[in-house]
Design a protein that fits this description.
The protein contains three helices and no strands. It has about 130 residues and is mainly α.
Length: about 130
């Protein structure tokens, strides 16, 4: 009784193998018969989820696309980091310039305070004399 069930399962597996072989032969025939349209037929099969051969091509294409995307992402990230570092240095230079201006203005204010004190002393002395 086990034997008939084995015979029943084997044709199904054999049928799947035949379908795979026929599908592969059809793909090969399409490539040989119409080479101009071959790329379109292969692309259509990849989009519809074709056989294992087209899946390998799709996997290779996906790996290549991933690699290119990864490289582009790295380049863009490097450019952004470089721009941020440039902005940090520019901001630092601006802050240094502003702080040097503030120090010079502070010196000017100190000089004006001294001059103001001298003028006030002179006015106070002139009022006392009057």
């Amino acid at each position: 009784m086990e034997r008939p069930s084995l015979e029943f399962n084997l044709p199904d597996a054999h049928e799947e193998g035949k379908l795979y072989v026929v599908d592969s032969l059809n793909n090969l025939n399409k490539l040989n018969v119409c080479p101009a349209e071959s790329q379109h037929s292969v692309d259509e099969e990849e989009n519809t989820g074709g056989t294992g051969g087209s899946m390998a091509g799709s996997a290779t294409r996906n790996q290549c696309l991933f690699f290119v995307t990864f490289i582009l992402t790295l380049i863009i990230s490097l450019a952004l980091v470089s721009f941020v570092i440039f902005l940090i240095f520019q901001t630092r230079n601006e802050v240094d310039q502003i702080s040097s201006r503030l120090l010079s203005e502070k010196k000017n204010i100190e000089a004006l305070k001294k001059l103001n004190n001298i003028i006030l002393k002179h006015l106070n002395q002139s009022r006392i004399k009057e």
